[in-house]
Design a protein that fits this description.
homodimer; alpha+beta; 5-stranded antiparallel β-sheet; 12 helices; 48% helix; elongated; DNA-binding
Chain lengths: 340, 340
Amino acid sequence: MVEDRKMAVLRAIVEDYVATQEPVGSKTLVERHQLGVSPATVRNDMAALEEEGLIAQPHTSAGRIPTDKGYRFFVDRLTTLKAMSAAERRAISGFLEGAHDLDDVVQRSVRLLAQLTQQVAIVQYPTLSRSTVRHVELVALSTTRALVVLILSTGRVEQRVVELPVEMTDDLLADLRLKINGAAAGERISEAATALAALPEKAAHDVVGTYGVIVASLVEAMSDHRSDERVVVGGTANLARFGDNFDSAIKPMLEALEEHVVLLKLLGHATSSSHVAVRIGHEGPIDELFSTSVVATGYGAAEDSLSALGVVGPTRMDYPGSMAAVRAVASYVSSILDEA
Amino acid sequence: MVEDRKMAVLRAIVEDYVATQEPVGSKTLVERHQLGVSPATVRNDMAALEEEGLIAQPHTSAGRIPTDKGYRFFVDRLTTLKAMSAAERRAISGFLEGAHDLDDVVQRSVRLLAQLTQQVAIVQYPTLSRSTVRHVELVALSTTRALVVLILSTGRVEQRVVELPVEMTDDLLADLRLKINGAAAGERISEAATALAALPEKAAHDVVGTYGVIVASLVEAMSDHRSDERVVVGGTANLARFGDNFDSAIKPMLEALEEHVVLLKLLGHATSSSHVAVRIGHEGPIDELFSTSVVATGYGAAEDSLSALGVVGPTRMDYPGSMAAVRAVASYVSSILDEA
DNA sequence: CTTGGCACTCGTACCGCAGGAGTGCCAGCC
DNA sequence: GGCTGGCACTCCTGCGGTACGAGTGCCAAG
């Protein structure tokens, strides 16, 4: 009973503070929410909440603001994921359907996420691990340079220019193309890499070097390293919502956005596509971003090919809305990748 | 004589203001620069410069700051392009040499430019116009969908997924691949497009539709539209240098950075690779960016395939340094594209 | 044409003060 | 035991007034 009201008070404080960005006092609280009790009672509850470390006051005679711990409690226990309205769902799927290649899907996702949440959105490129090799194309650029193009089932194309140790004939190239496609086409990436690695061993002495470098570049292209290290960011203009403290909030965020490695760290390891992870303030991996929260989730065609996407915003943000948007976008993107 | 000193004063004001970001007064001016005259004399010169609209004072009892017109004069008449030191040249070429594909070149260029100038860097993708078609690859994704891959001499790869109007056999695809490569391989883009456009006309009735959609997607991929509309931005963290007025300077810039179309407008039409264009404050195409300057230049393998790159910063910026860096990077990138 | 002197302007920092929001606590009431 | 009204207290915020100093413009002399 009493506990219930205390929770209602915490929820009200979080919601009001998120909306107004100002510390909220007992009087305004009872005015704006139907708590059915007097300000004095609310004050007692607030004192208890402060005792528990869920809220704090910036200075003695000010209202309360939620602490990181308070937001955590709010997210874990007081939030039910808002369902998206039918119109929103239609808008999302419509917007993403229009995409015609992988880059396009990723780019649209970021824009969409940024727009829906009015925050900075981050999308990691899908991992290649589950995708299969559609085709490998070799093109001679000169007698000692070749272009290796790897086409994957997801529609992703990786390319490498390879310097050859010895001169090469068109016949050899055609032969190699045949062998490589025979070994790799249709296979999952991991198996294709294994199959390819065996190729040079069977080759004639005079071409083993050529086989070697080309296969090596393919294997390298196949390794996830390139693709899922790539990250796309959108909605940077929403940094304006981070508040007025440029140095303490916006600047470190700008710096983080420059470094893709840092962004990947921020997104964290996606655990599953159904679970939306929330990292609040100091919980995150980067100390400078102590007033920044991350709402992220995994996405991908299958459980074993997860990438991550999410949004980044000030700790004072609309968690339920962001979580719903992140989850919705992730699920739509996943299903689109699944078709492809 | 007197004119010379006035110019020296203007130069000193610009340099000091850029360095300190504070209005500069007559006294500090004679202290920091060897002008050989008294503050009073400098004051007279300043009054004259203000009369001409080259400098202004933010309020009555403050030092002077350059106006846009003053910067313009400084750039046009008082600046000689700093040559880069040998070490800098080595660093630049070394950093860019390491790139192994077009995306990589572009990305390294932005980073480099941002680092050299400590500002926000923008690089437009090279136009395709001069490059030739290396190879076209068609891959069946299903009987009614095909992946069209266009490989250009620059190493750039464009891809499209095409929905086919009727089912297609592997034979037809092979035939089509042959015909297309016969018509387009080795040709410049513009000629390849023309040659390809003629193909469907010669096709048998039952496959004319298939020919049509595939050729259309190729022609579309060949048109510059896609590639040189792409823009890459780097060094966003340097927005911090824009000053403290978030709303009037940083926010509009963040918004501009979101929209690639706006960025292209900012870069402007590159005129030639040797000329570095400077747009100061209100001279630019976007009113909101009235306190922002752009230093840009064209680059590319040849005069007829120009794209643009440059940096964006507050009007109060180091023009000589930025201009030198922009020119140097442009020339190195051009030569690298030339080799490829 | 330059220079030193001088009066003047005006933005900034500092101070003190009143106002007000919000709290904590206590005594009374249901 | 929990809720409520009352009340004293704290302390942030805004405002006006003031002193200071940087910087200027002007003038008369060199």
